[in-house]
Amino acid sequence: MTHTTPVDIHTLLKSPEVQNVTSAISEAVKERRSFRPAVCPVFLSDYTRAVGVDKFRFDIDPEAARQLPDIIHNKVQTIVTEKKPSTEFIQSYSRARRIGIVFSGGPAPGGHNVIAGLYDAAKRVNSDNRIFGFLVGPEGIIEGEYVELTDEIVDAYRNLGGFTMIKTGRTKIDTPKKMALAKETVLSLKLDALVVVGGDDSNTNAAFLSQALYKEKVQIIGVPKTIDGDIQVRDADGNVLCAMSFGFHSAARAFASSISNLSNDSSSDIKYWHICRVMGRVASHLALEVALQTHANLTLIGEDMADYVDQQRLAKAKAEGAVDYTAYGMTLRHLSRVICNAIVRRAEVGKNYGTVVIPEGILEFINEIEVFIIKLNTIIAHYNSTHDRDFHTSLPTLEQKLDYLGHLVRDVPQGLNTNIWNARDDEVFNDLPAFFQEGLLTERDSHGNFQFSQVPTEKVLLNLVKDYLKILRDQGKYVVGIEKDYFSKVLKQAGLDPEYYGPILFRNHGRGQHLLVKENIISLRTLKNALIQARAMSAEDNVPPAIEKIYKLSVPSFKTQSHFYGYDGRGSDPTVFDCTYTYNLGLTVFSLIANGATGQMAAIRNLEHGFNHWEPLGVPIAPLMRLEERKGRLTLVLEKSLVDVSSPAFLVVKEFREKWLAATAGDDQYRRPAPIQLLCGTEEDRPITLMLNAIGQGEGRKA
Q1: Are strands 193-198 and 98-103 parallel, antiparallel or unpaired?
Q2: Burial (CB count within 10 angstroms: exposed 0-12, middle 13-18, buried 19+), residue 386
Q3: What's the pTM?
Q4: Same domain, yes or no: 236 and 192
Q5: What's the CATH code of the domain at 300?
Q6: 200, 201, 228, 578: which is the annotated catalytic residue?
Q7: pLDDT tens digit string along 231-287?
Q8: Active-site residue 485, yes or no?
């Protein structure tokens, strides 16, 4: 028995080495905190001016003009160097200001650097400038909860992920009472400006705050944040003003790193299909970027499926003198067939494994599911507006919800369209698996949106995929290809002639590197029958062990592992791109405030062309807003950007689908993205999506 000298734990804990290795502040954090992002040349000067330009135009929604009259005609403002500032300009620019900032919505890597950029710019111009961070999102504005930011607080979070410095929340300032309380807080703090860092709904909030505080001369500036990448600003002529919201690149890289590891795993033990669902409730930008980063075997893009047309069904209907309108758009059944086809083709070349990337909101692009979501959103919103308690509180169990839907077929509540839920809807819905019914009836988010992240999309698809693969296996169409050299070796070692048995067993004997068992051989019994019919054995004999071994190797076992990538990417430390992007957004925010702007969103133009071509801007928020259905009624919101299926980035992914599927003999085409690093000469300077779009536009890499 081994004896060790007793350790004095108190002495051990006092050791500098122990304190160092157990500290919450790792060496990587120290390195990140010390990193100083590059700044756009315009911010190297003492003063900048925000200049309104007329070359960008917007199609203004009449309702936006009615509700936001004081900011609807704002122009795009470019940030330029003020080389010869007047005394009046210097005094105005440098006067002491009180500025509030709030994080709104989910975290996105780089948010802390927005604060750092704003803080540094404000303190450099006038040390008496004061920055206040509202705590736990817009709720902090409503309740007057805030902290004054200091060097110590800001320095502790430079270049770090999360919104930990002041936290975040999803409260919306969307009622007269909330707006009144927010105004009271802003005015009592004597704020000159308020900065709202958030996504489409948060920047919508910024526009309404700007209008509400316009006469009080409190400036409101928005900052585009969302890992989904669905804030992409263009004018009416298609000119790109903001190619991507911040946080997207870091989240995509974090997801890609994990999915790349799964690709390595699946190609090592060659027995699992990894089904990877990535965030992206409305748009598939993250899935597209992850595809480019990892070369996953199959990546589904929702926007691509929305444009799908089943030509075979159209031709069949035309031959019958009819029109099949269900041929337009992808169905859930057809989507499962697309996945099955990829699995079967890879199995045929001995690759019964792989990775599939699915955007979280893919169900929204499926015809029958989209119809259900729209109808259920309307039903839930109507119920909530006509009852004292909401739908999910009143009907807590699935059985109660289904019973209520059943009653709608017979007894339609006043004010609800009689066709909103019919007998056919009820029948089809009741045929869905219970977990999927639960998912479709899940509680909507604070904006009335369907919460795709709460639905196991991959489980819905996998149930259909597994069912169809079983049919294909029973038909002998889903088999694992056997390498012909291996087949020959096994039979020769058993003293059997591979040239004799090959034509009996395989449908493609003599063709190809991988041999496929004949479709009529789907069990050991049918294997024996095939050998008997070919007179290779008698009914009394047993199947030779070598032949049985080859057959069993050809029988596929579809094993899956499901993964959801969302919150891990939101909390990732930012890439160099996002560190630099967000710091310069913070500098842009201060320049807009110092120049008296309000109702503007800080942006950087030419993100797709590399840092040397970045142009800080102020983009008017109000002209970007459109009416959209929320909670059963039309509401003004900032319009989301979907994947453009005609963009160079998408077309490249589409062109490489076959190559990355790798349903051929030989190696897979998996790409290994590097881990997120700050001090690394090989770190990419922007998302691959943006890089390809720039190259595809004929403008190349402007660096």
Answers
A1: parallel
A2: exposed
A3: 0.91
A4: yes
A5: 3.40.50.460
A6: 228
A7: 999 999 999 999 999 999 999 999 999 999 999 999 999 999 999 999 998 899 999
A8: no
